[in-house]
Design a protein that fits this description.
The protein is of the alpha+beta class. The strands form seven sheets. Strands 1, 3, 4, 6, 9 and 11 form a six-stranded antiparallel β-sheet that branches. Strands 13, 15, 16, 19, 20 and 21 form a six-stranded mixed β-sheet that branches. Helix 9 packs across helix 10, helix 9 crosses helix 11 and helix 10 runs antiparallel to helix 11. The longest helix has 21 residues. It is globular, with a radius of gyration of 27 Å.
């Protein structure tokens, strides 16, 4: 079940006529130029410009006077249409370009000139006055005779002059072999190991016999040593590997390295401070995801921006959002909430599981023996609500909860009490695009049973957690939860359509038994009412084996109910068996972790890494952590802590999947406003942002051009164009926040 479809687009303002045909013949063996008149010797034809750009020949170049004051890159452009592309053929895209004055950025795009305006390759170089030559190789994922090459030059406050020459799109070139830089062959957690926790590393080597290793401190002195353990070929990476265990060393310090087989690892610490900071950074991520409020630069330096979708031009806004045609005849105020991922959509099903996991991060701190609720107290996240005597993590979650409540169908309507599945743009938008610059019409999509039950579950959970701080809000949430539950019972099979993926992800799901179980569990834990207890006990989910290889997610929510039933105090008959089932699931994940030379509780069937594999690993670690809270058995605690090693660098690519953590880390995640890779004026994602991680299906064209035939862990690339391997998402970061908080507690 795929999470979503987000795509890089060129904008309709630039584009021409309809698609009429697709060639099916194989790629040519010879190199063939696909563009006409790329040298501008005597004419500019057949190159076009947007109406606000004045262009002409100058010294054998095409030079364009670009107006200032445009908002978006695509507001001013030069391009050529009707370009033929052949699926599977490699192309060399090259050009010379200058900009005056220096420092301007042009977005060079190879894409489709008609709906859905897909982008197959793009790059955004910063131009100099003296002139630059650029050359790139990519593989076309489609056959089309309606391709387009465009140079988008808008988005500047000031007018400037853009000149280009020797533009070429040469087909039939040898494909560029992508070789990721994986650095030293000793793979470690690049951030930190706990002094009293497990310490493991992986060595990539051709050797089949054990090898010596040394642990060195920041001064280069050897402080521990031992022998590697050969593990053979690791299925998840295709590498021959050894394991290294240096868990007996417990002294704290910074700048340690591990040396083996002539290789020195990237540096790491032994201590707890990094996890205390990650606990906060992973939760701080949500403030800059907020919709409907200006992000204050004094609270997040470098991330300040205007409010998005508040009915201020060019936004059409979220204040009076209509339904898709034929769905309803009312409008709703659905301002607020979090932008779901790298686009401007807001989705109840993904918002629900993300909110639950943040709330559960806080609830665990209240209930677990190692919990430290003060670590998430008021003032810890530096958000506008800080200093209101409410824990900041509850304030942040409430921003989304208020939005979820607004998505409920009003009284008096045919589906009163149900929740609309999602709200997003009518059409896909391009990158980069700040929320306040989004010009698209917004639409409510049909209600769904799953969205309604996400609302019921999270609102019920909120009712018990906010009670000490805001009794009125707690009561409002519980009323909404009951109403949603009743509505879902009356409409148990209203499912989102898999085809409803234009302008936003579909989030389709045709089984609501897990959501019914989760919602009943939360309503029971909050109210103690027998009716909800009976529903939980009679649900087939209550005794089902729900801890599968992929772990829980927005489409597999049964574990959310099971984990809370196991840890939140109640008088539910049979609770001991529920707790035992969590420990049994953890035992399976622990066995998986031990079988994996890279030490993660994740081994998907047929080694097919799923969309968002990073957070699935973390959610499997959450099950291990919960088993530790239930049983007190150190093996579950150690397994949960060790799972973070993979996320923070002990993996085949030798990269930390958390922005700002580790010497080499993901920082070009797919996002319309954390888009520094495309626009140097915009920031990278904030520290503590989790990348989706390896995805064997590599659905996006950029990943397909680089990663064909990839094995498991290698199906990832840190590029903003790779939305299937490198997006950011609110549910993914919730898993990181929960695990970072747990590991920090173990220090």
């Amino acid at each position: 079940m795929k999470r979503r479809r987000t795509i890089l687009l060129t904008l309709t303002a630039l584009l021409g006529t309809a698609l009429t045909g697709m060639p099916a013949h194989p790629a040519a063996a010879d190199e063939v130029e696909q563009l006409k008149n790329g040298t501008f010797d005597t004419t500019t034809a057949p190159w076009w410009t947007t109406t606000n750009v004045t262009a002409g020949l100058s010294g054998g170049q095409l030079c364009s006077d670009v107006p200032g004051g445009t908002a978006n890159r695509w507001d001013a452009a030069v391009g050529q249409n009707d370009v033929t592309l052949k699926k599977g053929e490699s192309y060399k895209f090259s050009f010379k370009a200058t900009g005056s004055p220096a420092g301007h950025v042009v977005r060079a795009v190879v894409g489709l000139q008609v709906a859905p305006y897909d982008t197959y390759f793009e790059v955004s170089p910063q131009l100099s006055v003296s002139g630059n030559t650029y050359s790139y190789t990519f593989t076309s994922p489609v056959d089309t005779t309606q391709g387009q090459v465009a140079f988008q030059a808008g988005g500047s406050a000031d007018a400037w002059r853009f000149c280009m020459d020797d533009i070429s799109l040469l087909g039939g070139v040898p494909p560029e072999v992508y070789q990721p830089d994986t650095g030293p062959r000793v793979r470690v957690n690049q951030v930190a190991y706990l002094p009293s926790g497990p310490k493991n590393a992986t060595l990539v080597t051709d050797a089949t016999s054990k090898l010596p290793w040394q642990l060195k401190n920041a001064d280069g002195a050897t402080v521990d040593h031992g022998w590697t353990v050969p593990r053979g070929v690791d299925v998840s990476s295709g590498q021959n590997v050894h394991s290294i265990d240096f868990g007996d060393y417990r002294r704290q310090g910074k700048g340690f390295t591990l040396v083996a087989d002539g290789e020195t690892s990237r540096p790491f610490d032994i201590g707890t401070g990094a996890y205390e900071q990650l606990r906060l950074d992973s939760a701080k991520y949500y403030y800059t995801q907020r919709s409907g409020i200006a992000i204050r630069d004094d609270l997040r330096p470098g991330y300040g921006r205007a409010a998005g979708h508040l009915n201020v031009a060019p936004n059409q806004g979220d204040d009076h959002v209509p339904c898709q045609p034929g769905v309803c005849d009312y409008t709703l105020d659905v301002t607020g909430g979090w932008y779901d991922a790298g686009d401007h959509g807001k989705y109840v099903v993904n918002g629900g599981i993300a909110t639950w996991e943040l709330l559960s991060t806080y609830e665990r701190e209240l209930l677990a023996r190692t919990g430290e609720s003060g670590k998430l107290r008021d003032g810890t996240l530096a958000i506008p609500e800080s200093a209101n005597k409410v824990p900041d993590i509850l304030d942040e979650a409430r921003w989304e909860l208020e939005f979820l409540l607004k998505m409920q169908v009003p009284d008096g309507q045919p589906l009163a009490g149900m929740a609309h599945h999602k709200i997003h743009d009518e059409q896909w938008t391009g990158l980069p695009l700040l929320p306040g610059d989004d010009p698209q019409k917004r639409e409510l999509h049909p209600p769904s049973t799953q969205a309604t039950l996400n609302l019921a579950a999270t609102a019920a959970q909120a009712a018990r957690l906010y009670l000490p701080y805001d009794r009125a809000f707690a009561a409002k949430a519980l009323t909404a939860a009951r109403k949603a539950w009743t509505a879902a019972l009356a409409h148990p099979a209203m499912y989102a359509s898999a085809s409803d993926g234009t302008g936003g992800g579909a989030y389709d799901d045709t089984n609501a038994t897990d959501e019914f179980y989760w919602a009943a569990a939360e309503l029971y834990l909050t109210t103690g009412e027998k009716g909800f207890a009976d529903y939980v006990r009679n649900s087939p989910v209550n005794t089902a084996d729900i801890f599968g290889p992929l772990g829980f997610d927005w489409g597999r929510t049964a574990a959310a109910g099971r984990l809370d039933l196991a840890t939140v105090p109640s008088k539910l008959p049979g609770r001991d068996k529920i707790r035992q089932s969590v420990v049994k699931g953890a035992e399976r994940y622990l066995a998986t972790l031990k079988s994996q030379p890279y030490g993660m509780p994740y081994a998907p069937d047929n080694n097919v890494y799923d969309w968002g594999s990073s957070h699935q690993i973390l959610n499997n670690a959450v099950v291990l952590a919960t088993a530790y809270d239930i049983s007190g058995a150190a093996k579950y605690r150690d397994g949960s802590v060790q799972s973070m090693d993979y996320i923070l660098g002990r993996n085949a690519l030798n990269i930390s999947y958390v922005t700002g953590y580790g010497e080499v880390n993901s920082h070009n995640q797919h996002s319309r406003w954390y888009a520094h890779e495309l626009d140097p004026k915009l920031p990278n994602p904030p520290h503590g942002t989790l990348a989706g991680g390896p995805n064997s299906s590599i659905q996006d064209p950029y990943a397909q051009s680089k990663l064909q035939g990839c094995v498991g862990q290698f199906c990832y690339i840190d590029d903003i164009q790779s939305w299937s391997t490198n997006e950011t998402a609110i549910n993914w970061n919730a898993a990181l926040a929960r695990m970072a908080s747990f590991v920090a507690d173990q220090g």
